[in-house]
Amino acid sequence: MQGQIKKMDKKELVNFINSCITEDKMYRFYKTKEWIELKNKILEEEHFECEICRKTGKYKKACLVHHVRFVRKYPNLALSKYYTYKGKRYKNLLALCNDCHEKVHDRNSFKNSTKEKFKNEERW
Q1: Where are the alpha helices (DSSP H) in the chain?
Q2: Counting Cβ atoms within 10 Å, is residue 81 exposed (0-12), middle (13-18) or buried (19+)?
Q3: How many domains does the chain have?
Q4: What is the reported pLDDT for 88?
Q5: Of 39, 60, 109, 120, which one is least surrounded by beta carbons within 10 A?
Q6: 69-110, pLDDT tens digit by residue?
Q7: Would you say residue 92 lies in a domain?
Q8: Is residue 56 in a domain?
């Protein structure tokens, strides 16, 4: 199964993803043929433009696809372009640039809050 997995039904996919989560090896899912093909399809559909930047009138190259419904929490939606919530259909996969992806995951906040977090040079 290295790098590729056989075509799986939903139940097998969920089991595979759960094993990746348990083993802390999510990269295995992101190297599958199914994910790579879907990711490339989403990027092409969005013309390799970041969907968040585009909404603000900016155009930046999208280089990755973000799961709105996180794979670790919703493994059954890992290969789903859309999900339904309270009867309404939403996009599950978004083409994003690195900066927007970091913002969506709130990863930039640590960089910005480091100075505020510590009161002095001894870091307390």
Answers
A1: 10-22, 27-30, 33-45, 51-55, 98-104, 108-117
A2: middle
A3: 1
A4: 97
A5: 120
A6: 999 999 999 999 999 999 999 999 999 999 999 999 888 654
A7: yes
A8: yes
Which letter does DSSP use for residue 66 in this model? E
List Cα–Cα distances, 106 to 68, 101, 110, 111, in angstroms: 13, 8, 8, 10
Cβ-based burial of 22 (10 A; exposed 0-12, middle 13-18, buried ≥19): exposed
Using the structure block, give the residue that is written with the tokens 């585009």. 54
This prediction's pTM:
0.78
Average confidence (pLDDT) over 110-121: 48
Residue 3 lies in a domain: no
Q: Give me the domain span that covers residue 40.
A: 10-116
